[in-house]
Amino acid sequence: MDSTNIMKSPADNVLFRSSMEREAVHDIGPLETICIGWNICNSWAGVAGTLALTIALGGSVTPIYGAIVCFVMVGCSGLTMAELVSIYPTAGGQYHWTSILSPDKCSRILSYACGFANIFAWIAGTSGVAILTTQAILAMVIFHQPDYVPEDWHYFLVFQGVNILACIHNIFTFKRTLWINDASFVLTLSGFFIIFVTCLARASPKQPSQLVWTNFINDSGWPDGISFLTGLISPNYMYAGLDGAIHLCEECQNPQSVVPKAILSTISIGFVTSFVFTVSMIYCIVDFDAVINTPTGFPIYEIWHQATRSGTAATVFMAILLVAAFVALSAIQQTASRLTWSFARDNALIGSKFVCRIHPELGVPIWGLLVNNAVVFIIGCIYLGSSTAFNAFIGTGLILQQLSYAFPAALLLYRRRAVNVLPRKRLFKLYGPLGWIANILTVIFAITVLVFYNFPVILPVTGSNMNYTSAVLGTMAIFTAINWFIHGKGLYHGPRLVEE
C-alpha cells in the first residue's frame, strides 16, 4: 500500500499524508467555514424554490411535518458526520471514513462506491442550484415583461452563463473574496427576517390555522403514507449539501473543532429558518390556484406578491433569493471541486494526475473545477432535449447524498463504535445511546429515500409524469463500473489506519 494512504492512530488525530501537508493552505478561518457551510444549504432559500409544488402534492401537512422528519433524520446524519470529522478531518470525508472503517477485503470497493456517489451528488446539486438561479432570473424578467415568453434555449444560455461565471470566480477571485460568504450569511438571514415579518404583517386575509396545520391533500393515487414519504423531497432540500464544510477540512483552520460546529449550526439554524418560513408562507397564500399556475414559473414569487400586495417588494425579495442562490452555486462548485480533487489524489479517476493538481499561485484545484463544470455543462445540454430527464438527474442528488452518509454510519455500527475507530478523547462526542441512534437512523433514512424518491409522484404513470431517477442512477452506476475496471481497480487506494 502507498505510504501516503496510511493514517496514524485516530488518537493522534493527524492525517499522515505528505501531499496534503504540502498542497493545502489553511487560509479559510473558522467564521468563513461556518458561513460557507450555511451558504451551501441556505435552508429557507432551498425550501422556497420547491414549497408550492410540495403543497400541491400533499397540502400543508407535507412541508410542515416533513421539515420535522428531515430535521430528525438528516440531523442524525449530521451528528454522525460531526463525530467522524472531529477525528478524521479530510477533504474526502465520507469515502475516506468508509475506507478507514471497512474490513480490509472490501475497503477499496466500498470507499470507491461511496466516493462516486458523493461526487455525483455534488454535481447534481450544482446543476440544481444553477437551474434555480436561472429560473429566478427569468422569473423576474417575466414578472416585469408579461409579453416575454422564454424558450428552453433561453434557460439553457442563462444556466450555462451563471455556471461559467461561478467557475471563473472560484478560479481567479475566490481566495481574495472570502468575505463574500460572511456577507451572504448576514444578508440571507437578515433577508429571511425581513421577508417573514413583512409577509405576515401585510398578508390579508390569512389562511385559517386549521387548514395550515392539518390540511393533507392526496390526489397522487398512492396511499397517504407513501404520498407523504415521496413528498419529503422538498423539505429534504433544506439540508442539501450538509457535508459541504467537511470537504474544506484541509483548507480551514482547526477543522477538528470548527467543522462539527459548522455542521451543527447549519442543522439548527436551517431547521428554525425553514420551519418558520414554511409555516408563515402557507399562512400568507391568498390565491392558491394563482400560485400554482403563476406565469413566472416561480411560485414563491407569486406568494410574496400576494402577501405584500407590492410587485416592488416581491422583486426585492426575489433579488435576495437570487443573491443567496448565486453564492450557494459558487460555494457548491468550490466544495465539489475539493471532493473531486481528493478523489483524484487517491488515483480513483481517469486523468487523476491532472485533476489532483493545485495551482501554485491561485491555490485552487483548477482541473477539479473544470472537470466538474464540464459535466454540469453537459447536463445543461440535456435540458434542451428533455427537461424531464434534466430534473431526474437533479433528483438523484438527495438520494446519493444520503447514501454517502450511510456508508460510514453503517460501518460504525459494524465496528460496534469501538474505541480503536472512535477514541474516547475526541473533540465531538455523542454520549451513551445517542451515537447508536444517530448511526441507525442515518442508515434507515438512506434506505427510505433510495426507495421512495424513485417512486412516480402520481398514479397512473405516464411518460410525462414518470420518475426517471432510477434510470439516471443506473447510468451513473454503469459509468462508475467502467471507471473502476479501466482505472480504479488497479490504482485506487483509500486511507487506512495503522497502529502506533
TrEMBL record:
Record's subcellular location: Membrane
TM segment ranges: 109-133, 153-172, 184-205, 263-292, 312-332, 362-386, 392-414, 434-455, 467-486
GO function term, MF aspect, one: transmembrane transporter activity
UniProt keyword list: Membrane, Transmembrane, Transmembrane helix, Transport
GO cellular component, one term: membrane
Entry membrane topology: Multi-pass membrane protein
InterPro entries: AA/rel_permease1
Pfam family, one: AA_permease_2
Main localization category: membrane
PANTHER family listed in its UniProt record: AMINO-ACID PERMEASE BAT1, TRANSPORTER, PUTATIVE (EUROFUNG)-RELATED
The protein's name in its UniProt record: Amino acid permease/ SLC12A domain-containing protein
